[in-house]
Amino acid sequence: YVPPQVRKAQEALNDKKREELGRLKKMVNGLINRLSELNLSSISGQMEELYMANSRKDMNETLTDILMNACVTAVAMPARLMMEHVLLVSILHHNVGIEVGAHFLEAVVKKFDEHSKSDAEGKECENLLALIAHLYNFHVVHSLLIFDILKKLVSTFTEKEIELILFLLKNVGFSLRKDDALALKELITEAQRKANTADKKLQDQTRVRFMLETMLALRNNDMRKIPGYDPEPVEKLRKLQRTLVRSSGSGKDTQLRVSLESLLSADQVGRWWIVGSSWSGAPMINDTNSKTQQKLYIGKVSSKIMELARKQRMNTDIRRSIFCVLMTSEDFLDAFEKLLK
Predict the structure, then answer these.
(1) DSSP states of 80-109 as a string?
(2) CA-based nearest residue to 90, from 256, 215, 311, 212
(3) What separation in angstroms does the CA of 304 have from each of 149, 282, 308, 312, 327?
(4) Cβ atoms 88, 131 nearer than 8 A
(5) Among 47, 204, 272, 302, which lies 20 to 30 A Cα-Cα from 21?
(6) What Rg do the C-alpha atoms of the chain give, in angstroms?
(7) Which residues of the chain have pLDDT under 50?
């Protein structure tokens, strides 16, 4: 039983909270509507101030809702507009905290999974995929997630999936090649095998041929073979990002190294990629379902250092990681930052 006066107080509190959220939404909406490359610096500054003045949870939810409404439409969104929106998320991700990018990424990936299973005719899937691609372009998420999505699309391999594979490769193909050429090569081999077995079923043969040609052009690092490929806008915005991101460790250290499976099952197994995120589910120890053991990221260290780690009997991933950090750091501050990561 809740006494009437307590009930009244709760209702008043809820109304007050609703009013605050409405006001916050208006402010964020106003900033997002004015967003362009020229005023990105002032708008990201104002967004940071809002993050300092309001609760992170409210801000993350409001920002994600507004960006999703703005970018996920039934018609294809202009690439430039997409990039500017994602660049704002990236700057906040680096300057405010990684939970900003993590919250937005999780919402986008879940929505993409939902839309990829439905047979809707709109361009929502392409728009969501463009958001994920640019989150990778602006160093919010690691290539691991992109490869997971590509593998999933290749395993289904219908006309809709082929379209999405082409779209994703055109946006981030050469960056993937730079990050992990071996994984890209494996993906291309798998796609060729799928194309050979699915030849009879697919009506649009030219689309498959075009996809395979695009993949070969990627493997051979031949940019001329990909029609409409222009790395210029992304490069320009990356330069702008470097000027607006404050922390010295901006770049690859703050990338979320999270797999597709982890993001989709975040509600069941918790969000281990966000430092300090609370989780009230069942303990994950002895969980027979999640056999995907996440490897710790050691980074691009030379084989010489790895050999040294082996000689020093660093026999687990975490020991090797710490050893590599200590051996490759420039000074104590660099070592401290990397160890925290």
Answers:
(1) HHHHHHHHHHHHHHHHT-HHHHHHHHHHHH
(2) 256
(3) 33, 42, 6, 12, 11
(4) no
(5) 272
(6) 22
(7) 250, 285-297
Question: Mind listing the pLDDT tens digit for each residue in 195-236?
Answer: 887 766 665 677 777 878 888 888 787 777 777 677 788 888
The H-assigned helical ranges of the chain are: 4-33, 40-53, 56-71, 79-95, 98-117, 124-137, 143-156, 159-179, 181-197, 205-219, 232-244, 260-264, 266-269, 303-311, 317-328, 332-340
Both tokens assigned to 327: 């051996």
Residue type, 258: V
In contact, 292 and 261? CB cutoff 8 Å = yes
The tokens for 341 are 């990561």
DSSP lists the bridge partners of residue 141 as: 256
* Distance from C-alpha of 255 to C-alpha of 138, rounded to nearest angstrom: 9
Tell me, what amino acid is at 165? I
* Alpha-carbon span 282 to 271, nearest angstrom: 13
Q: What region, left, alpha or beta, does residue 163 occupy, with left being phi > 0 and alpha being psi -120 to 50 degrees?
A: alpha
Which of 115, 135, 137, 138 has the alpha carbon at shortest distance from 126? 115
Residues of the chain with CATH 1.25.40.180: 4-269
Q: How far apart are CA 139 and CA 117, in angstroms?
A: 27
Q: What is the pTM of this model?
A: 0.74
The residue type found at 74 is A
Helix or strand or coil: residue 256? strand
Residue of 273, 295, 338 lying closest to 101 (CA atoms): 273
